[in-house]
Amino acid sequence: MTIDLRGVVDPSVPTGLPNGEVLVTFVAALLGRDGAALQDARVALAASMGADAVVAVSIIAANFSRNDRIANATGIPLEADFVKLSEDFRAALGIDNFASARNTLG
Amino acid sequence: MLYKDADMLVPAEISTFHASELASFAQSGTWLTGEERSAVVNLVRQLRVSAGSAIDSGVPVQPAPASVLPEAVLALVERLAMAPQKMTHEVYLQAVADGISEPEYVEIVGVVARSMNVDMFSHGLGLAPRQLGTPSSVEPDCERPAGVVNEGAWVATLPGGQVDNAVEAQLYRGNMQPFIYRALSLVPDEAARVIAGGNTQYLSLEHFFDYEYSKYPALTRAEVELVAGQVSAFNDCFY
């Protein structure tokens, strides 16, 4: 299976994962401000992957919403090993342009 | 049961952890009273409801956060909760210049981030935020842990591998901890909860490099990382 990482940063790009679209749509709605869209996405996700997937995705999204705020608010730099490992795709995905990139890249 | 009104099955481990998190917001912390911590959480909830990002529980918030928290804290909480992409070093420096001490800042970050974790989960299931307990007015002990240093973040943190440091030993339990788990270690109770949350909600670190491993039968590891990556891209989180 070929995965297109661009789909991680751009919800309009298919990731190549079999359930990618329904997952991305739910997460985008969860992060958004439209309750009706979230409800529709929740129903679609449950229909495709089951109610347990709704619960699991909500747990993961919530966990990383927490982590992101902690990282952005404390200025922690990314560990050097991971900076090296991600060199070949970060720039292509625009991650190096995040404001928080300064905390690692300077 | 914390999520008895959910029409989906919530793992007991998650319910138990979230109940503990909710209780922690009403308790006094190391630098803030329970009343101040509850006010921070209530402010985040008000902001999210106003923005359409959360369901209004309908429970009146008393006292109003603005009557408990100074202006600088109100501004910090709003920025962190609603625009985490715009958290910069300058924002941190301004918060300190406006009278928020370094450890108070860390505790506020912890409370905002952890409360959003619990509330976003509720929102994912179509539920209103869970009720907070009665806030404590017990004065915090304001104890700064020994051994915190500048490890390259904006705030001091507690490095791992220290000899004869009881706080470090209890917090990290002999394991190398990534920076995200050391980020709030200036307030050890906050860091402990972040570590526990990661282990409970995401995975424990011994599984991190097992790319087939997922805590959740409903999701493959690739799907877990897609969700995590999408959230972090939305928040402009390089880390």
Terminus-to-terminus distance of chain A: 36 Å
Radius of gyration of chain B, CA atoms, in whole angstroms: 18 Å
Task: Give a count of the beta strands of chain A, DSSP E runs of length 2 or more.
Answer: 0
Total of helices of chain B:
10
What is the N-to-C succession of helices and strands of chain A?
HHHHHHH
Helix-and-strand structural type of chain B: mainly alpha
Assembly annotation? heterodimer
Secondary-structure element series of chain B:
HHHHHHHHHH
Brief overview:
The complex is a heterodimer of chains A (106) and B (239). Chain A has 106 residues and is mostly helical.
Describe this entry's structure for a reader:
The complex is a heterodimer of chains A (106) and B (239). Chain A is mainly alpha-helical. Chain A folds into 2 domains: 1-74, no CATH class; 78-106, no CATH class. Helices cover 65% and strands 0% of the residues of chain A. Chain A has 7 helices and no strands. In chain A, helix 2 (20-31) packs antiparallel against helix 3 (35-49) and helix 3 (35-49) packs across helix 4. Chain A is globular. The model of chain A has no long low-confidence stretch (mean pLDDT 94). By secondary structure, chain B is mainly alpha-helical. Chain B has a domain at 11-137. In chain B, 50% of the residues lie in helices and 0% in strands. In chain B, helix 2 (34-51) crosses helix 4 and helix 2 crosses helix 6 (102-124). The longest helix of chain B has 23 residues, at 102-124. In chain B, 48% of the residues are buried. The model of chain B has no long low-confidence stretch (mean pLDDT 96).
